[in-house]
Amino acid sequence: MNQSDKGVFNVLAGDRSEKADLLHGIFREFGVNFASGVPCGVLRHIIKNFEDDAVVLHVIANRESEAVGLATGAYFCGKIPAVYMQNSGLFSASNDIASLLIPYRMPIFFVVSYRGCEGEDAVQHLTTGRATERLLESFGLPFEVFRNQNLRNLTRSLFETMYKVELPTFLLLKRGWHR
Amino acid sequence: MNRQEAIEVIMTTIDAQDVVVSTTGLISREIFEKFDSERNIYVPGSMGLASSIGLGLAMAQQTKRVVVIDGDASLLMNLGSIVTIGNRRPTNLLHVVLDNGVYASCSEERSMSKTAKLEVLAGEVGYQYVRTADGQGGLKRAIIEFRRGPGFILAKIELGGRRDFRRPLELAAIKDRFMLFMKQPTKGDPSS
Fold first, then answer.
1. CA-CA distance, B6 to B81, in Å (whole number)?
2. Could you give the 3-state DSSP secondary structure of residue A105?
3. What is the ipTM of this complex?
4. Alpha-carbon distance A85 to A42, whole Å?
5. Is the residue at A179 inside a domain?
6. Does residue B179 belong to the interface with chain A, where contact is any CB pair within 8 Å?
7. Suppose A113 and one of A11, A40, B73, B186 were both cysteines; which one would form an S-S bond, judging by CB atoms 3.0 to 4.6 Å apart?
8. pLDDT tens-digit profile of B151-184?
């Protein structure tokens, strides 16, 4: 990381999340060595862990669709990619998931922040919030919402499902998940 | 030069070990019918993503050269991709854009490539090799002279040509054979 990049994560100075570190450990256990996505504050600890890990080739994308394309290229070369985005961006990238990842049967792990849930204070998230789980259900894709279950077991089991069905698979994280 | 002639030049000029990622519509369908190979990836849906997939490939497998065959309208649909490519600067990526100024795979509705100055944009955002080509000779030369990328070739093409190509359908099988191809050592690469 060069000097100018460091400023990006100043907001995180000293702020760590045990849950995010645990999640990163599980990513490493499953061989994740490529990450791409569009930032979301809810995912900041996860993104910082990707950025700080020399084993992970991390490429920030301009739009969520781009991240889907980048992860696809990396997967074709034998890399194990993870993709991160907000659920608003999941809708932007939904056709790319439907028309690229599903017909090519790509087991790519997505971490998606889940805005528009109970307690949401931003009106622009309400419609996509209501529709997020139904979008994934209608695509027939595996997903789990983290509700303080055992994060390790939940994530491991999602990875195992992903490799069984060979489809993109989603872990949805609500605000405050990292505490 | 039309689409058929441009594709013939590209597919017969690039190295046998190069990887090809082709964009949505007639470009992928023509390549699939005439030049299908284990080294090809077709992007029949997710219009615009060919260059993003190509960048992912080029960064993840630096011993192989990646040739993206894009269209003007599909590049415009994911224009941020050239910014990412220019930022990451993979030396093994060659991005060829067949520019006919229209959405040819639809009903030839006009795109905005005429005012977009795509080759200027590519140079400004960080591509290291930029050429434009009008005819088959110029396109061939631009490909042969490419050494170090990211490279961008804007190939102006005319409308017309066949439209009745079959479609790539067995995408999972295309993925499997491509991934096997990517595992083979690249000839002449000292690290393989």
1. 23
2. coil
3. 0.96
4. 10
5. no
6. yes
7. A40
8. 999 999 999 999 999 999 999 999 999 999 999 8
